[in-house]
Design a protein that fits this description.
This protein has about 130 residues and is mostly helical. The chain has helices at about 5-35, 40-65, 75-95, 100-130. The longest helix is centred in the N-terminal third of the chain and has 32 residues, at about 5-35.
């Protein structure tokens, strides 16, 4: 398989992964509005509820950057995925969320791991194609 077709496959797979991640992040935001985390401080609760919404917006921005093949888009995506794994791990450890919220958190973390691998391959292909 030549580099162009491999690049296209990796680009399409990252587009699908980021689209699914946007949907899951916004779904988690909606679920956190319905079933909030057990926190008494309303300001902290509002910030922690907004994190999935911000994550969804960043996923959409990175999806656009990757679709336009902007320089260093894959590195922004990898760093965002690592940051999301750290944040959602903290949610899991410190707040002991209910099972339905935990399913979304684990799904998003798994998608982030897959995105890291996918974007690593994308970066290698870009480096081979353009030097």
């Amino acid at each position: 398989m030549d580099l162009r077709s491999l690049n296209r496959i990796v680009l399409i797979s990252s587009s699908v992964l980021y689209s699914v991640n946007v949907i899951l992040s916004l779904s988690l935001f909606t679920l956190l509005l319905i079933k909030p985390l057990p926190i008494s401080n309303p300001d902290v609760k509002a910030i922690l509820t907004a994190v999935p919404l911000i994550s969804g917006v960043f996923n959409a921005l990175i999806l656009g950057m990757i679709s336009m093949s902007l320089k260093y888009a894959e590195y922004y995506g990898i760093s965002k995925s690592v940051l999301a794994i750290i944040i959602y791990s903290a949610y899991w450890l410190y707040f002991k969320p209910p099972f339905d919220i935990l399913i979304f958190i684990i799904s998003i973390m798994a998608l982030c791991l897959i995105q890291i691998v996918d974007l690593y391959y994308y970066a290698r292909i870009q480096k081979e194609m353009f030097g």
